[in-house]
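Final report, closing paragraph on structural work. Over the funding period we assembled a curated collection of sequence-structure pairs, and we close with a single example.
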Amino acid sequence: MREIEDYTSPLDDDAVELDLHFELPDSGAGLVLIVDDEEASALLNQSILEAAGFQVQTFARASEVLVHLVSDEPIVLVTDFEMPEMSGIELAEHALGVDPDIKMLLLTGRGDETTAQSALRMGFTDYIIKPPEPIALARAVQRAFHQRAGDRHHRAMVAWMKVELKRREDAIRQVTLSTLAAFSNALDLRSPHFYGHSRSVALQAVAIAGALGLTDDEVESVRVAGLLHDVGMMAVPDYIVEKAGALTAEEFLIIQSHCDRGVEILRPMTHLGDATRFIQEHHERLDGSGYPAGIRGEEISLGGQIVGISEAWVAILESRAHRAGRSREEGMTLLTERAGQWFLPEVTQALIDADAGMI
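Its predicted structure, as stored:
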């Protein structure tokens, strides 16, 4: 069973570091693979690019280049359109399947601009009309390397931003829970009868959620709801909390309002997720006899049921200003007799199986 620790501000949580420095790669930073079944054309393009400082390998057939696509170094593929075995377009599809980051240039004849435009739509970086102008070819290859480097840096930036946003969200959540837990503790301290009440409810709720096989995220939501279920009691005057006699109808309505008041307090804190709903529903009952909305049956969330039976169990065992706490046997009899009426039978059974024994 999980422990319910006090929430503390994550002051020692350091930001994730990211090297924001970015340099465009020089011409020797990658490998150019040229695929052209015309040997003279392939050698011409190779000489142009090697003169510009690029590392170049040439291939006469598309099948020959496929095994070279898996590489740790950046690759730019320069391919002819019409070739034996497979076209440049078909080669590009294979290449993207092997290396999604690969950049590709299409070599095409004059009058084939329609094919070239289609190639751009399917992922080619650029197209070059044969025979290429040396400067145009070298610049197109250089742009392809720059684009690859830029894409990878952008992806690293996005990944960092997601991690950092999650870190900040978690930090804000921790601070929020720390503050609200402090309020709950303060509320518990208003009366000796409520000392440790919220922590006990959270402990029991976690135990029941575990017995029901809920996921870690669901257990966490139940835990938060158990810890903060009475935060709306801030709006209830002390004289009502401490009243030894029976409550008037008006006073009972004020007590009932603490569920809605709690939701009003927590609503801006959207990162609390389902916990807010569980808090609102923890006094609802299957037969509609609960409050604040009198909802029934499947309208009540499982988390609301779990926090509800946990709070009921703890409240039954605790003493109040107007009554003494009941024994564990009496309390369990009361809840089991109302299984299916107040709480789902499986939730009641989970309480029996996972009684945390905190009272």
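Confidence is low (pLDDT under 50) at residues 1-13. The chain has 14 helices and five strands. We thank the funder for supporting this effort.
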